[in-house]
Amino acid sequence: MSPANEHITSGIHNLYSYHFDKAINSLDSALIVDPHHPVQPFIRLAVNWLQAQTECGYDSSYAIIEQEVKNLVPWYKKHILQYPDNAEYPLYLGSVYGMKARISLAKKKWLDVIISGYRGYNYIDMAKDIDPQLKDIYMPFGLMEYYSCKMPGSIQFIAGLFGINSDCETGLGKLETAANESYYSWIESSNVLVYAYLYIEKDYHSALKWVHPLVAQFPENPMFLLLYGETLAKLKMWDELDEVLPQIYPFTQQGSHLLTNECNLKYQYLLALKEFDNQNYENVIELTTNIITDYQMEFDWLLGFAHILRGKCYDINGDRNQAVMDYKVTANLDNKYPEVAEAKALIETAYKL
Questions:
Q1: How far apart, in Å, are the Cα atoms of 245 and each of 81, 98, 220, 279, 329?
Q2: What is the pTM assigned to this prediction?
Q3: What gap in Å lies between CA 228 and CA 230, rounded to an integer?
Q4: What is the CATH number of the domain that holds 328?
Q5: Contact between 50 and 68 (Cβ < 8 Å)
């Protein structure tokens, strides 16, 4: 084991705690101790990307990824040739391509997601051939397979031609293996599992299972707290949510503009879910309208959630025209969340309690 591992672990912990400068300091120490460590360059990319995203904006974060990919691909390829028995070099080269695929995902360029993902998939497959016992490989495998299964049929067909398995259960199983057994990727694997179970599978008890260790290990991560809060809301665990809301609120008031905006939007959504359960529909309409008006997030899924929730309130209040207008916004969003199909159904049939 490399003597730099302690510094790498510290860098990862600071990354997920949103202490970016501390994370870079830890990675600088790792670089001094072991300049050839295969994980350090990839974690540095992740730190630079997330810091740029929260402090400068989404376009700046994409530029960081594009530039870092150009720099890191030749570095990793050189080390693959120098150390052909080290599976971590192809694994993290594949992960670098996965970061590039993330840009395409944000821009809803589904075919580009598969193409960049395929480049990464090949290198991760190489890592598996070198060391089948390296559990960190299960995270990118599971992520690619799960999201491929949620793509349109034509994209799934192309993914199959590339050799990418498009099976949801298999993908989730690999992510769970990584979350349980991997050395580095258990955090991101758990994060992906929470998103999958909370938003796609609607299996809230499984989401609660995977979000618990994230909140316990990273109490300063606002996104993990927000995921925890939303899971509690979906399970109607309102007393538990009331205990979490005061922990979340400070993140809506401090930090960079984009980070506080995202935290505030998600915080208001938690309040809206609670008010909806309490049948305070005018309060829900006010909260969801605030979300829609102030929306600046990278992805549009929460925007769709706000519109469909507000539409249900309008339906309950007898304002069918306003409800349909909201449902149409959600239905026209080109994302893979079940709310899109639900909104299309609600356009035809009014929501009833």
A1: 51, 34, 14, 20, 29
A2: 0.93
A3: 6
A4: 1.25.40
A5: no
Cα separation of 150 and 128, whole Å? 24
In a domain, 181, yes or no: no
CB atoms within 10 A of CB 280: 15
Amino acid at 87: A
Whether 328 maps to a domain, the answer reads yes
Full residue range of the structural domain in which residue 337 is found: 255-353
pLDDT tens-digit series, residues 224-261 = 999 999 999 999 999 999 999 999 999 999 888 899 99
Tens-digit pLDDT profile for residues 56-113: 888 888 899 889 989 999 999 999 999 999 999 999 999 998 888 777 777 777 666 6
Q: In degrees, to the nearest 5, what angle opens at C-alpha 60 toward C-alphas 13 and 80?
A: 60
Three-class secondary structure of residue 261 per DSSP: helix
Tell me, yes or no, whether 27 lies in a domain: no
CA distance linking residue 344 with residue 337, whole number of Å: 12
Secondary structure of 15-45 in HEC code, one letter for each residue: HHCCCHHHHHHHHHHHHHHCCCCCCHHHHHH
Residue found by looking up tokens 């050395």 in the block:
183
